[in-house]
Amino acid sequence: MKIGLLSGLTPMINFASRTTVAADTDWGIRLIPDWQFFYVVSGEAALQLGPDSYSIRPGECVLYGPESAHQLRTINETDYFSVHFDWHAAAEEPVHPAYRIRYGGLDDMLKQADSYSLDIPGHGEVCIPHHFTAAGLEPVLMQLVREYRMEQPGYTVMLRALQMEIITCIVRSMLRKVQPLSVHKIGPALQAMRSQPERNWAVAELAELCGYHPIHFSKIFKEEIGRSPKQYMMMERISQAKQALLKGDKIEAIAERLGYTSIHYFSYNFKNETGLTPSEFRQQGSSSIDPK
Hints:
By secondary structure, the chain is α+β, with helices and mostly antiparallel strands. The protein has helices spanning 137-150, 155-177, 181-185, 187-195, 203-210, 214-225, 229-247, 251-257, 263-274, 278-288; strands at 2-5, 12-21, 26-31, 35-42, 45-49, 52-56, 60-64, 70-74, 78-86, 102-103, 116-120, 124-128, 131-133. The longest helix is centred in the middle third of the chain and has 23 residues, at 155-177. Keywords: Activator, DNA-binding, Transcription, Transcription regulation.
């Protein structure tokens, strides 16, 4: 299942808790209405997800989605975080999953659970496994649970921001563990486009940097990055433009530095990629920056 573009996510936390339960606690065979993230702090738990089995030890996580039949139980006394969420949610308030959980039978466990992937600019589709480890999650999870329990003003905004931080930590962990060889092989082209975004790179030039025929280079590039070299170049220019806008650089200077011959063409491309004009983006960004 393709979740979508990382920057386009609008996650909502439906439930968040930290709990310690006794050994042999069994929640039965369930089918939930949203996604569940289960992180073990201490102890050990076991997950049967469809026909697949996972042991969850301290610092390890499991993730599964709606209609994925599963059975979760503890092996010994276990301290854990449980988070129910949606990747995309229009609702501004959490929608508790409890009354929508269904209990199934052994026949439901025969179905393979869906796999998930996110589109990461510059890296293409990144698979999020059902069982993994990711550094730095525990402090964020603790803050997430506090926000959920206390419901202070603006807590839904904080919940969404914290969940995005969790998702980003997971993605970065996946990228560190899996670096396809072909990405390293197109590394010189990526570096060239990042360091000289103002240059109108020809595919043949980029291919030569990597030692490939242009047709073969374009094929590998699209497979690994998820975009054509031209699309990636546009994305890199817009990314650098965003940083410059938030730093306060003049729009005319940014456009010229990034190789645009017309400020109007720059504004057109920027809005086409972001949905905002450069001025609107700067204003929106300035209002959200922490003055510290």
